[in-house]
Write a structure and sequence with these properties.
heterodimer; A: alpha/beta; MetI-like fold; D-Maltodextrin-Binding Protein, domain 2; 4 domains; ten-stranded mixed beta sheet; 27 helices; 10% strand; globular; B: alpha+beta; Rossmann fold; OB fold (Dihydrolipoamide Acetyltransferase, E2P); 2 domains; six-stranded mixed beta sheet; 9 helices; 25% helix; elongated; ATP-binding (chain B); Spermidine/putrescine import ATP-binding protein PotA (chain B); transport (chain B)
């Protein structure tokens, strides 16, 4: 009796460990509050938002298309391969089966990287490369499902059919096919599951602008978790679960309810098919293009889409607009030669690297009629482009302190001193990003945030380790939500996060301490791969137009380098230091310089030491 | 038999992965003949059948059917049908659908197919099984359905690849009678492959004994049994005493140092030969009255007879007798000249095959 109870508890614990994380996710997807720790009531709005989000739906459609196409093609190839393997001698079978199984065991990331390298050699990364990659890794799953059925089927029934006068094709379809059908179908479902589920390989083989649900989720998570992603993840989990159940039902002979099986398969096929059609239609609508086309690459959600339409209408130039999430991802792919764009927007330190590597074309500002609209201070601050000839600033922001006015007054947070003070103990969120954490520490020691002297860095580490006991958590993406939920009252974070948080909670304010801080500038540049320089400049000029910039600002909601925007934005925004830093602030700030490899390695070591103390 | 040749294998060679399975193989099969290919596994008998069925292509040589070359005709266009070793019924079809398979491909009318199904089921004594599923049948029943499925197509030749191998003894015997009955009723040619010599002796008009890709002997069951041409055939067709001997001169052979009169001539003088003596041909006589003196070393009761092992002159003789002898009893052995079968020792490579046992 006791034994039985114990074994039940044991099983319960196993399931708890297995499913608790997913359960938490599912519960959070119904949470009205944005916080991850407090329950704000039940809501379905996350699910609604999930289906209303254009980026989610387009990633969803891409996923369906890739999943369906790759599974169908892999099923055909895999089935044929299984037939070939089954008719081989034992030794040949073992060798071929081993060879096809290696990709199954190989680390996804290795497969992904090697495929990227191979594809880049021949073509640009894009939808097709992801599709090929998915077909490749799906084939072994199909073979593994079909082969046992073929072995069961025994070749002599096929020969018997030939003997009775059936042609090879007819013999296959009347005799072999019915015997392996269930294997082929479970192979297909398995392929769908794997394809739906894959992240690593897709991540490396996709081109900019192609996103499946998993890569989009990843990119979004890096930027900050939005609760509709909980809803999406829950849906994704349920879909895979259903597919697995369907696969098992299909493989189980005892479940002889053909109707149920047929209905399940029909529903899956229908869903995949409609998804694919939807995407094809959409893609057809997007493509078209004439002679005057520019290909533009920008961070995700970093422009008002209406402006693109307006630009196309006014100039007759077609914009092929693509987005990316991670500057490192863009950089790697750019260097691998997988991307050819006319215009790219990215972060300061990446541009500094690219300029050193001589990857950019100078921008002729005499052709930009709106060049005068740009705040000269910002151009001056673009130290990553020392000759000021390669870049046009787009948006910028600062690193500072987000605080709750219920607990702190503006005077208290005017200086970085506060975050080293014992009184903040337990309600301070420190940034979890290495350089951003070291910046205030370096400032506290009286050094520049770009200081590379190891002794100075070590000194900064001491400051940080003294601070560590007072820090309630090191966060990046979670900061805004925790501050909104008032789980902390002070946070070191970027102005962008701060602006988001302030929109949700009126008690929150943002300040850049007087000692100065980091200022980041995202800028446009023209890569050497540019094929339409003239129209690229026209686009840049358009973005610098006063009214255009204002409209764009209202969508993107980061500080704009266009002077007109700074003076014409809504009064509340103008007073909001998170999106409109005062000149005093920007003067004291510095832009990050790209660190050399040794310094960046040393910095990481110091950070690891600190975190493990 | 003066009937014309229906099938001719002409100089057929076939190898798998450098393994020669058939070498310069020649064989003809006459119309309405029951031919059995007999031999141990790996002797090439199944390959011969598969070549005839069209599932394999020879590396060299020709197969003629009714005088026409069918070497390159695909299996589905040959006018013959096969009954496979593992029955090979289509598991997802009913019995009737299985039997109708060939007829539907031949685009016969529904009425014709229906007639044929019930005729064929009657023929194999499985009346009324039309709608049963394959799984619900026993092994013997499945095999009979496989035969029915083949014969409804009225092939000129029926190929049978060890069709009774998976059945128990009782069932095998009754199926043997059924097959002979079918052959007489249908009047078609049977090419039957087996490794079971009793089966071959019971059913065949002609037996082709094969080993290592070579034909060892072709003949009637009686001819093969009574006059094996070499040690392999003698050993494979029932158990035999095969002894090294020296042909002293015509009609006298020395066995184990003892000269014995025989009826064979023309082997030359003092020639080494193989001597075959069937166990039932060895006579046990009172000590002192036979040619060889020996001791009984084992005794097994076999129903119709006793099977003894007798050690005499350094050789262990297999002897069948109806009289009882005790182990350890001393006896003399004798053989009448007519029952001593003299065979050449193998010389060429194809003859070598006779020495290597299964």
């Amino acid at each position: 009796m006791v034994k039985k109870t114990l074994s039940r508890i044991y099983i319960f614990l196993i399931f708890l460990f297995l499913y608790a994380p997913i359960l938490v996710l599912a519960v959070l997807s119904f949470n009205r509050s944005d916080s991850r720790v407090s329950w704000g009531g039940f809501t379905l709005s996350r699910y609604v938002a999930c289906f209303e989000s254009e980026s989610i739906m387009s990633a969803f459609a891409t996923t369906l298309e890739i999943t369906f196409c790759s599974a169908v093609i892999a099923t055909i190839i895999g089935t044929l391969a299984a037939m070939g393997i089954s008719s081989m001698k034992k030794r040949g079978q073992a060798i071929y089966l081993g060879a096809t199984n290696i990709p199954l065991l190989n680390a996804d990331i290795v497969t992904g990287i090697s495929m990227m390298l191979l594809f880049v050699r021949f073509t640009n990364l894009g939808f097709v490369t992801v599709l090929i990659a998915h077909i490749t890794f799906n084939i072994p799953y199909v073979i593994l499902n079909v082969l046992p059925k073929l072995k069961q089927a025994n070749r002599s029934t096929y020969e018997a059919a030939l003997d009775l006068g059936a042609s090879p094709v007819r013999a296959f379809f009347t005799v072999t096919w019915p015997e392996i059908r269930s294997g082929v179908f479970s192979g297909f479902l398995m392929a769908v599951t794997m394809s739906l589920d894959d992240f690593s390989i897709t991540y490396f083989t996709k081109g900019a602008g192609v996103n499946t649900l998993s890569t989009m989720l990843y990119a979004q998570l890096r930027k900050g978790i939005k609760p509709e992603l909980y809803a999406l993840s829950t849906i994704l989990f349920l879909t895979v679960l259903l597919l697995l159940i369907a696969t098992n039902i299909n493989g189980d002979k005892k479940v002889d309810n053909r109707l149920i099986r047929r209905v399940i398969s029909a529903v899956i096929m229908l869903a995949l098919f409609t998804g694919s059609v939807f995407v094809l239609v959409q893609q057809h609508r997007i493509s078209g293009g004439g002679d005057r086309t520019i290909t533009v690459l920008n961070y995700g959600k970093y422009i008002d889409g209406e402006l693109l339409d307006r630009f196309e209408r006014e100039t007759g130039i077609t914009v092929k607009y693509e987005e990316y999430e991670e500057p490192e991802e863009m950089y790697t792919k750019y260097k691998a030669g997988a991307i050819s764009y006319d215009l790219i927007c990215t972060s300061d330190y990446i541009i500094e690297k690219l300029i050193e590597e001589d990857e950019l074309l100078p921008i002729d500002d005499s052709q930009l009629t709106n060049y005068e609209n740009i705040d000269p201070a910002l151009i001056e601050m673009s130290t990553f482009d020392p000759s000021h000839q390669y870049t046009i600033p787009y948006f910028y922001g600062t690193l500072g302190i987000l605080y709750n006015t219920k607990d702190y007054s503006e005077d208290q947070v005017k200086s970085w001193d506060l975050i080293w003070d014992k009184q903040v103990s337990g309600h301070l969120i420190m940034t979890n990003s290495v350089r951003d954490a070291f910046s205030p520490a370096l400032i506290a020691c009286g050094y520049s945030i770009n200081d590379t002297d190891p002794a100075h860095l070590k000194e900064a580490q001491m400051v940080l380790s003294r601070q560590k006991p007072m820090v309630s958590a090191y966060y990046v993406d979670e900061t805004a939500n925790e501050m909104i939920a008032e789980n902390a009252s002070l946070a070191v974070c970027y102005s962008g996060e701060a602006a988001l948080a302030m929109d949700e909670n009126e008690h929150l304010k943002y300040i850049v301490p007087d000692e100065g801080s980091n200022l980041w500038i995202d800028s446009w540049f023209v890569p050497k791969s540019c094929r339409n320089y003239q129209d690229a400049l026209t686009f840049l000029d358009f973005l610098c137009d006063n009214e255009v910039a204002l409209q764009n600002f209202e969508y993107v909601y980061y500080a704009s380098p266009i002077l007109y925007v700074q003076t014409h934005m809504d009064i509340d925004d103008r007073l909001n230091s998170a999106i409109n830093p005062e000149n005093r602030v920007t003067r004291n700030c510095e832009v990050y310089r790209a660190l050399d490899n040794d310094t960046s390695a040393y910095l990481n070591t110091l950070w690891q030491e600190l975190k493990s103390q | 038999m003066g009937k014309k040749h229906l099938i001719d294998f002409v100089d057929i060679s076939k190898s798998y992965h450098h393994n020669l399975v058939l070498d310069e193989f020649n064989l003809y099969i006459r119309e309405n003949e029951f031919v059995t290919l007999l031999g141990p596994s790996g002797c090439g008998k199944t390959t011969t059948l598969r070549l005839l069925g069209g599932f394999e292509k020879p590396d060299k040589g020709q197969i003629l059917f009714d005088g026409a070359d069918i070497t390159n005709v695909p299996a589905n266009e040959r006018k013959l049908n096969t009954v496979f070793q593992k029955y090979s019924l289509f598991p997802h079809m009913s019995i009737a659908e299985n039997i109708a398979f060939g007829l539907k491909i031949a685009k016969k009318s529904d009425a014709y197919i229906k007639d044929k199904i019930s005729y064929a089921l009657k023929l194999v004594n499985l009346d009324g099984y039309e709608n049963r599923s394959v799984d619900s049948l026993s092994g013997g029943q499945q095999q009979r359905i496989a035969i029915a499925r083949a014969i409804v197509n009225e092939p000129k030749v029926l190929l049978l690849d060890e069709p009774l191998g998976a059945l128990d003894l009782k069932l095998r015997q009754s199926m043997q009678y059924e097959l002979m009955r079918l052959k007489d009723e249908l009047g078609i040619t049977f090419v039957y492959v087996t490794h079971d010599q009793e089966e071959a002796l019971t059913m065949s008009d002609t037996i082709v004994v094969m080993n290592q890709g070579y034909i060892q002997q072709i003949g009637t069951p009686e001819g093969i049994y009574n006059e094996p041409e070499n040690a392999f055939v003698a050993d494979f067709i029932g158990h035999s005493n095969i002894i090294d001997g020296i042909m002293l001169h015509d009609e006298l052979v020395e066995i184990l140092g003892v000269p014995m009169p025989c009826v064979d001539k023309g082997f030359g003088i003092n020639k080494p030969v193989d001597v075959v003596i069937r166990p039932e041909d060895v006579e046990l006589v009172a000590p002192g009255s036979g040619k060889l003196h020996g001791t009984v070393i084992s005794n097994l009761f076999k129903g119709v007879h006793y099977e003894l092992e007798v050690r005499a002159a350094g050789y262990e003789w297999l002897v069948h007798t109806t009289k009882y002898y005790e182990v350890g009893q001393e006896v003399d052995l004798d053989v009448i000249p007519f029952n001593i079968q003299i065979m050449h020792k193998p010389e060429s490579s194809d003859e070598k095959a006779v020495e290597i046992d299964e």
